[in-house]
Design goal:
The protein is α/β, with parallel strands linked by helices. Helices cover 55% and strands 8% of the residues. The protein is built from 8 helices and 4 strands, in the order βααβαβαβαααα. Helix 4 runs antiparallel to helix 5, helix 5 crosses helix 6 and helix 7 crosses helix 8. The protein is globular. InterPro entries: Resolv_N (IPR006119), Resolvase-like_N_sf (IPR036162), SSR_resolvase (IPR050639). This is Recombinase family protein.
C-alpha cells in the first residue's frame, strides 16, 4: 500500500504593501514551494501576509495554522526568515501542535530552528542598540543630526538602500559566526558546520559557499 500523500498549506509573506501588489518576492516564494512539492494537488490554497518582519500580529499566519490543523496538513514556508525575527514567536509556532517545514531547511530540527531564531533576534536587537548609541554619542558632541540636502526623497531612498544592504551583510556574517560557534561547541565537525551554514542560506563575505577552511577562519574571528 502506498503511503498517504502529505498535504501542505503554503504561507507567504512580503514586507510591504507595494511588494504585495507588484508580486516582488511573492513569486519567488511560490516558485520555491512549487519546486518543493511534487504534486500541486498537495497544496491546499495559500495564505499571503503583507507585514513587517519585526511585527508578530499575523492574522493570515494564524488562519493558515488553523487551516492546517483542521485537516492535519503541514504548514509550508519558502524561507525561515519569512516567519519572524522574534524567537518567542517561532517557539510559539513550534509548540502550536501544527507541523511546519521550510523549503530552504527541510531537514531542520527543533534545535536548529531555535538556534536560528535566537541568533536572528539577538542580531536585530544589537543593530538597533548600536544605532541608538551612535546617534546619542554624536548628538552629545554637538553634531546636528540630519542635513537638509540629504532629505530629498531620492537621497532618503538611496541612504535607506545602503543601510539595509550594509546591515544585511553584516548581520548575515555575524549570524553565521555565532551559529558556527554554537555548532562547534556541540561537537560538530568543520564539514558538518559548513553544510549547516550552506543549507541555512548563509554565504561567505564574497558570496561563496562555506567549506571547512572558511568555517575555520570564521571560528577564529
Amino acid at each position: 500500500m502506498l503511503p498517504a500523500p502529505t498535504y501542505y498549506v503554503p504561507y507567504y509573506r512580503v514586507s510591504t504593501a507595494r511588494q504585495g501588489q507588484s508580486g516582488l518576492g511573492l513569486e519567488a516564494q511560490r516558485t520555491a514551494v512549487a519546486a518543493f512539492v511534487a504534486d500541486s494537488a498537495q497544496l491546499l490554497g495559500e495564505f499571503v501576509e503583507v507585514e513587517s518582519g519585526k511585527k508578530n500580529q499575523r492574522p493570515q499566519l494564524l488562519a493558515a495554522i488553523d487551516a492546517a490543523r483542521a485537516v492535519g496538513a503541514t504548514l509550508l514556508i519558502a524561507k525561515l526568515d519569512r516567519l519572524s525575527r522574534n524567537a518567542g514567536f517561532i517557539f510559539a509556532l513550534r509548540d502550536s501542535g501544527v507541523a511546519f517545514i521550510c523549503c530552504d531547511m527541510p531537514d531542520a530540527n527543533t534545535l536548529t530552528v531555535g538556534l536560528f531564531a535566537v541568533i536572528a533576534q539577538h542580531e536585530r536587537e544589537m543593530i538597533s542598540k548600536r544605532t541608538i548609541d551612535a546617534l546619542t554619542a554624536k548628538k552629545a558632541r554637538g553634531a546636528v543630526l540630519g542635513t537638509p540636502a540629504n532629505m530629498t526623497p531620492a537621497a532618503i531612498a538611496k541612504s535607506l538602500n545602503i543601510r539595509q544592504e550594509n546591515a544585511r551583510t553584516n548581520q548575515q556574517n555575524q549570524q553565521a559566526a555565532r551559529l558556527a560557534g554554537l555548532l562547534h561547541a556541540q561537537g560538530y565537525k568543520l564539514q558538518q558546520i559548513a553544510q549547516e551554514l550552506n543549507d541555512g542560506g548563509y554565504r561567505t563575505r564574497r558570496g561563496q559557499l562555506f567549506f571547512p577552511m572558511s568555517v575555520h577562519r570564521l571560528l577564529k574571528r
